[in-house]
Amino acid sequence: MEISSFDYTPLDLSSHAQQILNSALTLITKLGNVVKSSSSKSFMQFKINRLSSALNSMSDYQLNKVGLSRKDIKRHAESLIKYEYDGL
Q: Which of 41, 44, 43 is nearest to 33 (CA)?
């Protein structure tokens, strides 16, 4: 088997391999960012749902004492988790 049948010199092959590795690393980085963003959003939604559930378990009297109505629970939970506590 002759190596000379390739169109690349050893230096060109190294350069080509480096380009492939760089492309693969870029793809892996982008994929990692997508996974991180998706999992971060999912976890934030989990925390919002958990706080909403806790607030929904309170009586109307208790909600009134803290200045909330039942219809505002979801919005209040989102506000607390996303903005007040910066995602906890």
A: 41
